[in-house]
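PROTEIN DESIGN WORKSHEET
SECTION A - STRUCTURE
LENGTH: 363
TOKENS:
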């Protein structure tokens, strides 16, 4: 039988806008109308969360309010085991999507409330309701300005000329009059009255918009000074010559470590400190040139760092390697000359009882 063709899929691919990619995933986006949950890419593509943690975050986010999301409750609802669920919840709690807080109820009981936030990074941002609160009382303030109050004074001006007593009646009759002649006058006045209150309103909102708390604060504290190069206890001419020769010989083994004469003079005391601690030249060469970064732009800075950070300790002396054993003196047994009993003493003689009896008899 031939392979069945999915005509619906072919029709959907034909409706995808733009040219289709030659490789990779092709998205067919059909808008949801009911039973859907919005999940941000910060969660779906989080590099620090496992696939199990992301899946349980989506499942928890899709559950209705008040649903139990403990380990036992999720294990009863989904096929995963309790260990996997507990590990996923710990990952979500470490990132900030899940939080557990112990609260005391009015009746005195202490319960644990589990809170899930679909975007924990937004909790660090300033709330948008605070900057807009002063804008709400300003909205009714410009309302009285476009009010027809200033437009009405030109209407009663022609009214008192024919009859001052018919003013209330002519107020009603004057309504159609501004439609023909004075209608053009209030139209330019209305836009002139409305812009002044609206123009100053945006500046305070724009000034409050930059109030953003960055997730990663910029480093403002000064960096600590670099560690000084190690110095030998006594820089003898022979030690300085051997250190300079070792540094100059590095380019023969690794061409990237070609140093200038100034760099040789600056780094030679540090190499002399290594040689003074009885480090072998081949060991020093391997420690300084092993696995350099590519490309190596500043070989002298790399050597300075490695000479300082990888400085070996001095070799211990012979007395440092000896183990001091605590000697325990054992008192030998002696036979009492009086009662023939055994007792511990460094010299032969009588036991304590015989010595006491002998002293009493002599007294």
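SECTION B - SEQUENCE
RESIDUE ASSIGNMENT:
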């Amino acid at each position: 039988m031939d392979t069945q063709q999915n005509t619906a899929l072919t029709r959907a691919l034909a409706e995808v806008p733009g040219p289709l990619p030659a490789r990779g995933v092709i998205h067919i986006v059909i808008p949801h109308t009911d039973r859907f949950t919005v999940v941000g890419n910060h969660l779906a593509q989080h590099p620090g969360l496992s696939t199990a943690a992301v899946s349980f975050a989506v499942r928890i986010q899709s559950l209705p309010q008040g649903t139990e999301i403990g380990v036992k409750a999720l294990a009863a609802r989904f096929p995963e085991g309790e260990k996997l669920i507990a590990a996923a919840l710990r990952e979500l709690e470490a990132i900030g999507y899940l939080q557990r807080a112990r609260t005391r109820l009015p009746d005195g009981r202490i319960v644990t409330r589990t809170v899930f936030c679909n975007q924990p990074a937004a909790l660090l941002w300033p709330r948008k309701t605070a900057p807009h609160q002063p804008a709400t009382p300003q909205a009714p303030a410009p309302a009285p300005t476009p009010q027809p109050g200033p437009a009405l004074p030109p209407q009663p001006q022609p009214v008192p000329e024919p009859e001052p007593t018919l003013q209330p009646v002519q107020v009603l009759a004057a309504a159609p009059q501004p439609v023909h002649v004075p209608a053009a006058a209030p139209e330019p006045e209305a836009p002139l009255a409305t812009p002044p209150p609206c123009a100053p309103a945006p500046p305070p909102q724009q000034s409050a918009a930059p109030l953003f708390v960055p997730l990663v604060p910029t480093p403002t504290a000064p960096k600590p000074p670099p560690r000084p190069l190690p110095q030998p206890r006594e820089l003898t001419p022979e030690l300085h010559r051997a250190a300079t020769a070792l540094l100059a010989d590095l380019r023969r083994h690794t061409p990237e470590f070609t140093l200038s004469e100034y760099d040789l003079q600056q780094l030679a005391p540090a190499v002399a400190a290594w040689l003074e601690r009885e480090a072998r030249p081949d060991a020093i060469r391997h420690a300084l040139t092993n696995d350099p970064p590519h490309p190596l732009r500043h070989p002298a800075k790399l050597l300075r760092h490695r000479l300082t950070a990888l400085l070996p300790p001095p070799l211990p002396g012979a007395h440092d390697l000896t183990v001091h054993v605590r000697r325990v003196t054992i008192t030998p047994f002696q036979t009492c000359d009086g009662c023939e009993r055994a007792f511990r003493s460094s010299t032969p003689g009588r036991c304590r009882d015989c010595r006491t009896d002998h002293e009493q008899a002599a007294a």
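SECTION C - NOTES
DSSP finds 19 helices and four strands in the chain.
The first helix runs from residue 7 to 14.
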